[in-house]
């Protein structure tokens, strides 16, 4: 599982970027929002990734922020929402705006994305509303109404690791926050993940 890439931005296209990591170019599909956030070609970038494994291919989808990746995972679990549609939604809406739209049942806002009609927008609202908590008043909010952990920190990586293991977003966030508080700021990623796993499994 490739969860994150750090390297140099080699090039970008309409719907992808190529990240040079130690001389190996990784082609990563991405939303227009993520592509805009990567900066100029040749600069160092860090991109959160989701690996899509099919019978005949392995693809990477990349995100400038961990909360975008979390929303991608939620969206692609909705029937009728594939990778392309999920990226179109994330191109049209910031995660915070998407959170508000789903929580408030605003299907018209979701339907602004290319390829999303009223019926699909309504299905997204219906299936995700109970999973994300109340509409945030402001500031970055994680899934389930839990305050998001800092992107790029060990805490964010630990949160991603627990979610990849099948823990619900609010369970993972609570466990990682408790582990970070117990271990302190200088904890290694390995120690943080191990303690968070123990706390999440209780």
Strand and helix map with partners:
Blueprint: E1 4-12, E2 16-21, E3 24-30, H1 32-37, E4 44-53, E5 58-63, H2 66-76, H3 83-92, H4 95-103, H5 107-110, H6 118-132, H7 154-164, H8 169-183, H9 189-201
Pfam family, one: RuvA_C
Keywords: Cytoplasm, DNA damage, DNA recombination, DNA repair, DNA-binding, Hydrolase
Protein name: Holliday junction branch migration complex subunit RuvA
How would you describe this protein?
- This is Holliday junction branch migration complex subunit RuvA.
- It comes from Sphingobium cyanobacteriorum.
- It is found in: Cytoplasm.
- By secondary structure, this protein is of the alpha+beta class.
- The chain is built from 9 helices and 5 strands, in the order E-E-E-H-E-E-H-H-H-H-H-H-H-H.
């Amino acid at each position: 599982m490739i969860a994150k890439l750090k390297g140099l931005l080699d090039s970008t296209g309409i719907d992808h970027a190529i990240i040079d990591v130690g001389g190996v170019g990784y082609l990563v599909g991405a939303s227009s929002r993520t592509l805009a956030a990567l900066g100029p070609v040749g600069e160092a970038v860090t991109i959160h990734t989701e690996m899509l494994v099919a019978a005949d291919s392995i693809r990477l989808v990349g995100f400038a922020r961990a909360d975008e990746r979390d929303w991608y995972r939620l969206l692609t679990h909705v029937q009728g929402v594939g990778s392309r549609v999920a990226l179109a939604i994330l191109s049209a809406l910031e995660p915070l705006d998407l959170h508000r739209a789903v929580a408030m049942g605003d299907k018209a806002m979701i339907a602004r994305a290319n390829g999303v009609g009223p019926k699909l927008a309504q299905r997204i609202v219906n299936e995700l509303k109970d999973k994300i908590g109340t509409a945030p008043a402001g500031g970055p909010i994680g899934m389930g109404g839990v305050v998001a952990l800092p992107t790029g920190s060990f805490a964010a990586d630990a949160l991603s690791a627990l979610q990849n293991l099948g823990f619900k977003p609010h369970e993972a966030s609570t466990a990682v926050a408790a582990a970070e508080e117990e271990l302190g700021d200088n904890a290694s990623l390995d120690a943080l993940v191990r303690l968070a796993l123990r706390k999440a499994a209780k």
